[in-house]
Each structure stands twice: as structure tokens, then as C-alpha cells.
Amino acid sequence: IKDLPLVRALGAQMVIVDEAQRIKNWNTKTAKAVKGLTAPRALVLTGTPMENRLSDLWSLFHFLMPRFLGAETQFRTRYARPIEVDGSSGARDRLKRRVRPFILRRLKDEVARDLPPRTDAVLPVELTAGQQALYREMLLTARERVTSVIDKQGFKKARISILAELLRLRQICNDPRLLKLPPGTRLPPSAKLESFAELVRDLIGEGHRALVFSQFTEQLGYLVQWAEEEGVPY
Questions:
Q1: Could you give the CA distance from residue 74 to residue 108 in angstroms, rounded to a whole number?
Q2: What does the DSSP assignment read for 81-135?
Q3: What is the DSSP letter of 157?
Q4: Can you give the pTM of this predicted structure?
Q5: Given this model, what pLDDT does residue 50 score?
Q6: How far apart are CA 176 and CA 135, in angstroms?
């Protein structure tokens, strides 16, 4: 963002936005800075044009062609609300026809024909004894809380509470630190972290590199902490 005046002065003939999902929220500083880049042509590249809602797609087109899908309020009225709330197939079809000429979709079988089939190797990890004890304790508490909510509000209204309790149980299985228990609480070590460390050491010893993914971004921070303590470049 700080280099925006310099980039503007270049007089580019085309602006290409890679990982364009980063401008899905038009109120962010990044999105506003990107909008300030003007050129005769524009292109956006992304593997996830919609991550959470239809307004993500509106934001991309607002950069490409500012008036093409109308203002955000108009887009919500014409497309987003009828599709997301009412399930209108008519509004969905109209939106498809509107944007289809400007979207080039690349499928996996078009770019990966020379690659061998993917090999999946599942590595089961048994929880440490401390994790198992914590899991059982949290499971009993979760059952009591969920049962109480169901009794008071009914099953449908209790879904959010059920998902929240399931999330906490998943966090225990990943790394108990994710629970954010009060400071000073003694937490058991993470079996997954121990298995991860062993696997990475083997990969490095064989001269390999690895791409690590976790649905819990905070857990990635714990993995980074381990890598720094071990002197593992990342």
C-alpha cells in the first residue's frame, strides 16, 4: 500500500490481481489500494472467487468493471438476497448469464494431464494419555451443556451450540493449547505435534520439502514456533 503512488506512476497497460480473494471485502485497505490501480485492462486470478458469500464475487467485478453488477446494495437486492435467502433459481440463472462471458475457468484435468495420480497416505495419530483424559472430561461437559440447550431451545436452535462443542473437541485432538484455557492451566502435550515433528525430520533428512496445511491458523503458529526452536527453515 505504501508503494501505491510509485506503482500508479508506472503507467501500466494492464493490472493483474493474483490471489484476488484478498479483495473480497471492499472496505479493507488492500481492496481500496487495488482499486486505485488504473489501467486500460484488468484481470483477476483466484481459485476461490467466492469464499463465504456472493458479495465476494461482486467485489471482484467491482474492480474489473465498477458498474457492471451495480452498486453493492443493488447487487444484494437483485441477486444476493434472492439467491442466498430465498433460494431463487431465477436470480441464480440471471447472475450466471451475466458473468459467464467474463470468466475463464481452468479445470484440473486441463492442466494436470501429465501428473501421476495423487497418492494419499493416512497417518493415524493416537492421542497422548493426557489428551485422552482431557477429551473425556470435555466430552462429558459438552454433553451436559448441549443437553441443557436442547431441553430449553429445541434441537434446531441448539445446532450452533453443538457445533461449538464439536469444535472444542477437535481442538483437543489437534493441540490442547487451542482451547485457550485460563493462564496457568497445565495442558498435556499434543500427539499430533509430536508426530508432525517426527515426520518433518524424516522429510528433511531425505532432502524433501513439504507444504503444511491446518484449518486452525493458530496451530500453524505453534508449528512455526517448533520450527524456530529446531532451527528448521520454513
A1: 34
A2: HHHHTT--HHHHHHHHHHHGGG-----HHHH-TTSPPP-------PPPHHHHHHH
A3: G
A4: 0.51
A5: 80
A6: 9
DSSP secondary structure of the chain: -TTHHHHHTT--SEEEESSGGGGSSTTSHHHHHHHT---SEEEE--S-S-SSSTHHHHHHHHHHSTTTT--HHHHIIIIIHHHHTT--HHHHHHHHHHHGGG-----HHHH-TTSPPP-------PPPHHHHHHHHHHHHHHHHHHHHHHHHH-TGGGHHHHHHHHHHHHHHHH-GGGG-PPTT---PPPHHHHHHHHHHHHHHHTT-------S-HHHHHHHHHHHHHHT---
**Which whole-number Å values give the CA distances from 152 to 141, 144, 160, 163, 170, in the listed order?**
17, 12, 14, 17, 26
Q: Which residues pair with 41 in a beta bridge?
A: 14
Average pLDDT, the chain: 88
Q: Does 7 have pLDDT greater than 80?
A: no
